[in-house]
Structure formats: structure tokens, C-alpha cells
């Protein structure tokens, strides 16, 4: 197990460090102290080749805008909040409007544009980095001073674990996630249309024309959203379904998970044999198939296009502040927000 660091650039006079940690099998993760952004995960295919399976920029400057949120930690609240406002304890809070009249992924700054304090660690069985940041009361309109820790850990079982921890001195909404896009073909040899996705979920959320949940829970049965037995993404994306067409002919939907830490999300790419198993204690996952990648953008040195990666955002349900029947995303003062998502990389030889 080893970890190395390299300064990439500076932002406002603060060094931006790339941390690369490697396990004893040769699996490798690279991340930045800017936005906790994951820029590389080298995972083996069925022939033993280690290739990058995440989307990233080859240069730092695009991360200053990073409209796809490549690899970043999202907060304080992942997803959209309708009309960029919410009511809590009898008071209305106005948030920054950064997507039309709505608030998206923590606002204009958000945790994805923060330079985090980073402390690396290494043991016999694991290696990684713990990031920390204090979000001040009023940042982006949110109440409370919030202390946040995000820990990235890689072990010798080829498990990459993200742990989130937060406390606040005022009641505040919080739901953190990571916005890494995966492409298991390796080094972007193909798009994600022939990846197979399996999710243990009986329900997904209906979205309106702004891609915000209406509050209606829909049954997946007899729809492209029935991924319980696994489905080629191409099959779902090309289906004639109004919710698929609504978001740019693809998925951009929250699913309610039926189990926790029981291989509830499995992504498989047959040519490489790579399998990604995602397990979490979050109530849902937002599946986004890159339907709206900006044109003219270079991704891993290649021109961007639709369906180049899939984002699997384990989190509380979007816009939960406006839907009392959703699991609550409110962190009470003095309580602890704690969440963990594990990404296990395996190889299928057949």
C-alpha cells in the first residue's frame, strides 16, 4: 500500500494537490483536495489490464466551472431544490439560484469548488485521504456552521470506500454524495450503452419538466426503470417512455433502494469483464447517463458526447425538503450525519 502526492496548480494562492494511492494488487485512485474530485480509478479487466474507469479532465482549469461535476463531492444538498428555498423551524431560507430559478448541487460554490484540508493515511490493509471543511453559517443561504469530513479509503479487496461525517450547530438540510461518472470499458474505448445495470429497486421518482421530483413514487414494473434483473442501458435509453424522453432520452432519475449493503447496485461491462458493485446506507440512488454533456468539452482528452459515462449518486432523495413523505434530509443541531458508500471492483472472466 502506498500514497504519493503531487502539486497540480494553485487556486487563490492555495496549492491543489493530487493524491494517488495504490493497493497491493495495483489498483489505483487519484483525487484532488479541490472538491475532493476523483480524477482516476485504475481497475483491472479480465485480461489483467489496468485502465481508467472514470471520466475526468486532463487539465485543471475546466474544474473551475466543471458543469458535469466530474468526480466531485456534492453538498450541502445533492440534487435540485425547487425555487431555491425551503422552510425549516418556521423560517424560510433563500438559497443561491444556479439553475434557472432552482438550486442545484449546493449552489454556485458548493462543496465541489472548495479547497479541502487533506490528511493522508496508510495502514497494512488500507490507504487513503481524509478531507475536512467547515461550511460557515449562511454559505449559499444554508443555516448553521457545518463541520464536514469525507474519507476516501482503498483496501486490498479492491474496495473503494467513501465515508461522510458532518455536524452542525443549527438544524440544516444535508445530503452528500459523490458525482463520479463510470465507464467500465476502460480508457473510454466505448460509450456506456452496452453496460448492464442492475438495481434492487421497486420504485423510482417521477420528474417534472425541470427534472425535479413531483413527489409521486412510480412502480418500476413494465417500464424501462425495472432494473431488478439487470438491463442493458441501451435498452432502457431507447425505450419509448415519457420519463426517458423528458430528460434527454436517458436516465436522470432517483430510485428508492430496497436493501442496504447487499449488492444493491451492480454495473457490468461485458467486453472488459469489469463489474462494479455499489453498496450504501443511503435510501436512494440517482442514475444519470450523461444525456446533456456540454459540446466542445474534452473528457480524458477526447471530445465529449452523450452516454460517455454513467453517474450513480447514492444519496437522500432530491428536493426532500419539500416532500414530507420522503426520508428526511434534516441534520439536527448537535446530531451526527454519517453515511458510507462502498465501490467494489471485480472481474467476470466468462
From TrEMBL:
Record field: catalytic activity: alpha-D-glucose = beta-D-glucose
Per the record, the pathway is: Carbohydrate metabolism; hexose metabolism
| Enzyme class name | isomerase
Keywords from the UniProt entry:
Carbohydrate metabolism, Isomerase
Quote the record's binding site residues for beta-D-galactose.
Answer: 179-181, 252
Q: Name one Pfam family in it.
A: Aldose_epim
Tell me a GO cellular component.
cytoplasm
State any GO BP term from the record. glucose metabolic process
Stored InterPro entries? Aldose_1-epimerase, Aldose_1/G6P_1-epimerase, Gal_mutarotase_sf_dom, Galactose_mutarotase-like, GH-type_carb-bd
**Which residues does UniProt mark as catalytic?**
179 (proton donor), 313 (proton acceptor)
Q: Quote one Gene Ontology molecular function term.
A: carbohydrate binding
What is this enzyme's EC?
A: 5.1.3.3
Protein family (similarity comment)? Belongs to the aldose epimerase family.
This chain belongs to the protein called Aldose 1-epimerase
Species of the source: Anoxybacteroides amylolyticum
